[in-house]
Amino acid sequence: MSNTNSKNLIFHVLALLVSLVWGSTFVASKVLLNAGMTPAEIMTLRFILAYIIMLPFSHKYIISKSLKDELIFVSCGITAGSLYFFTENTAVKLASATSTVALVICITPILTAITNRIVYKENTLSKNFLIGSVIALLGTTLVIMNGVFVLDDNPLVILFSILASVCWAVYSLTLRKIENRYHSDVITRKIFFWGVVTMMIYFIFDPMTVTMEMILQPQSLIWLLFLAVVASLGCYLVWNIVLKRIGVVTASNYLYFNPVVSLITGYVVLNENITIWAIIGCVLTILGVFLCNKKVKNTTSD
């Protein structure tokens, strides 16, 4: 194996690890929701904690090199933070079957590839890539449904779920405009900052009710720190590096694993059931991602 391939393999492994962590965050969220926090409060608290922890080690470019760059950071903070979580959480609140939300959001990798092709005119949509995407999407569908094939017919649920997927795709593509001008820690810190600032608009209409008593409950505090330090600070930092090194399309394919990890952690931590359909779905997801990444060109811009 060449030195270049060996280095690229490391970033593929990192992309997979990030996806594994993000797939397990639903357990932490469930604990905090049961403690009385709202989804918006959870997102805001984890971003604030992550920002505070980062600041002593990353304090360059509090103000960006230009107004244009700062506006790009604002866009990233909105699409990877406030607007993404708002659209996703709104879809979940409206849904009678949350599997619908999870399923629609799983179109993010293929949506990212399509928008990347349109915006940057790059040939990422090979025949085998499309076949792999279809197989992976079928696999995640089986995992999410887990033997219970129920979908929500509320068009608003579909709309907000698609908007959440679009937000993440836009974030991934927008990041390319600044990834070579700022270090990943600066980008990550600014995403947290603008995510929190723009989330304040939401709290004007739905004020925060979280209390210190809720936060300082031992179990809540542990899971909140996990979301802040591992799932936010660590994963966003690594993800931004991975996007730069192996490209947005290749990296995004690993997001297909999120439902797989959610299924496994749900079984281990919450004693949730796993059906044969979900197991078949896991196998198909792995196969699909393998096909996608085998055929997508391995460059920094995909």
Calculate the terminal CA-CA distance, rounded to whole Å. 21 Å
**Count of DSSP helices?**
13
- Strand count, sense and closure of the main sheet? none
Question: What is the string of helix and strand elements?
Answer: HHHHHHHHHHHHH
Q: Level of helix content? A: over 70%
Radius of gyration: 19 Å
> Structural class of the secondary structure composition?
mainly alpha
Q: Mean pLDDT, as a whole number?
A: 83
Strand residues, percent: under 5%
Q: Give the domain tally.
A: 1
Oligomer state equals single chain
Global geometry: globular
* Count of extended strands: 0
Q: Uncertain spans, ≥5 residues at pLDDT below 50? A: 295-302
